[in-house]
Design goal:
162 residues; two-stranded parallel sheet; Pectate Lyase C-like
């Protein structure tokens, strides 16, 4: 299904199966995608500002350069997703699964990532100013790398078994 460049502002797609769909550069501002299946979907450059992605499946999705400012992504599954250069500033990522995701050069400033699973996530050159990672799960190596960058307080992150 190719929905690239479509204007779907405010649309309710909750619980829809959009696995593998192409939504590149679509306008999904304030859309409801709660519990939607977007596994392996392509959302390159898509505008997802203020979107509701609560409990959505975005496993292996391509979200390069997507705009998720202020998105509600509580318990969303981004496992293996590509979020490179995505803007997730002020996004709510509480208890989200970001394991094995790529967030290279992503903007996570002001994002709330408490209790998120960050194991094996790539945060190379990510912007993390004001990001809250209290009780986030990551490996000892990942934790040390973020601490050395001055990004996190060692007491705020739980270490998972390697």
């Amino acid at each position: 299904m190719d929905l690239s460049w479509q204007n779907m502002r405010g649309i309710d797609l909750s619980e829809f199966d959009l696995a593998g769909a192409r939504l590149d550069r679509a306008n999904l501002i304030a859309a409801n995608l709660s519990e939607a299946n977007l596994g392996a979907a392509s959302l390159v450059g898509t505008n997802l500002c203020g979107v509701n992605l609560v409990a959505a499946n975005l496993c292996e999705a391509n979200l390069r350069e997507a705009d998720l400012i202020g998105a509600n992504c509580v318990i969303a599954n981004f496992s293996g997703a590509d979020l490179s250069k995505a803007n997730l500033s002020r996004a709510m990522l509480l208890m989200s699964n970001l394991s094995r995701s790529t967030m290279e050069k992503a903007n996570l400033s002001g994002a709330y990532m408490s209790r998120a699973n960050m194991s094996e996530a790539t945060l190379c050159e990510a912007i993390l100013s004001g990001t809250i990672m209290k009780d986030a799960y990551m490996s000892e190596i990942e934790k040390a790398l973020l601490f050395n960058r001055g990004v996190i307080d060692l007491e705020q992150v739980r270490v998972i078994a390697e």
